[in-house]
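Researcher: Next sequence.
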Amino acid sequence: MKKILIASKNRHKIEEIESILKEFPVEILTLNEFMNMPDVEEDSNTIEGNSLKKALEIAKWSGLETLADDTGLEIEALGGEPGVFTARFAGVGCSNEENIEKTLNVMAFHENRRAVFKTIITLAKPSGEYKQFEGILEGEITRVRSGLGGFGYDPIFKVSGCGKTLAELGAEKHALSHRGRALQKFAAEFCEI
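Model: Next structure:
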């Protein structure tokens, strides 16, 4: 059975990845199972670069095939921001609530509320070989929070053609989400990787 290390300690991400890969002959490990794991500074100016750096460094350190992702929320009216700064839009060490609050405040007077979530998943081998998979979800920033599920910006991101925020979707989120779409592309090629 193949082993894949998920380069994350984020419980929500791990659950989403595990639910999509549950039908494959793979043993999933997480960073929670390792001591003295090096910190990987996500200092690239692109989502692709951060995902790649994390996957390669952890794969070389662990000796295991490693799956890493990076996600950015790109808001059209803000010129693509927050982008690579999505997790720290309200400042270093900020909470999800602070990011949501800042987003709602800066978007308060914008009529154009179009946005996309973009996830890049990288599978890297200790040898340095890698493959990347992209998932994009179009939608818009709502004016108020809606829904109790999900995490991050989910309560203020309404999915195009759905009429619901990611936080309102429940289990169907895995099939529709940006991360879910990238993982589905990964899963489609899983046996060949």
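Model: The helical segments are 11-21, 47-62, 96-106, 173-176, 178-188. The first strand starts at residue 2 and ends at 6.
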